[in-house]
Amino acid sequence: MKLLILAANGQIARIVEERILTEDKFKDIDLVLLLRRASRLQSLKDRYPDRVTLVDGDINNKQVVVDAAKGCDMIFSAVVDHDDAGNNRPTKNIIAAAEANKISRVIETSLLGIYDEVPGKFGK
To answer: Ranges for the NAD(P)-binding domain (predicted)?
Structure first.
């Protein structure tokens, strides 16, 4: 299976990526990681060259998201859609990418830390 992760350098995304790449039960999942300045995750690509593809781009650009989703089975969005233009471009682009690539599974996250899953960030 191939999973596209949007906003791949965010805190939630990094937790998901680490688990997928290190836990045996996810060994059949390859990652396509979309983020601005993809070089920030080059060390991940270096550690898992056969399982990680880096895509440099902005999720506010519809064609970038559609192209990144080609060949993927699922999309995971690790970004809060707080589009400055007020028209929800990231969400619309994710929907367009899923439709264009016939992807029926999309996971959306928007809250961080409500279950203390990020140590040292909230509360304890």
So the answer is: 8-123
Nearest CA to 50 among 12, 17, 21?
A: 21
Burial of 76 (0-12, 13-18, 19+ CB in 10 A): buried
- 0.90 surpassed by pTM: no
Residue range 2-108 in CATH 3.40.50.720: yes
Q: Give the pair of three-digit tokens for residue 110.
A: 């928007």
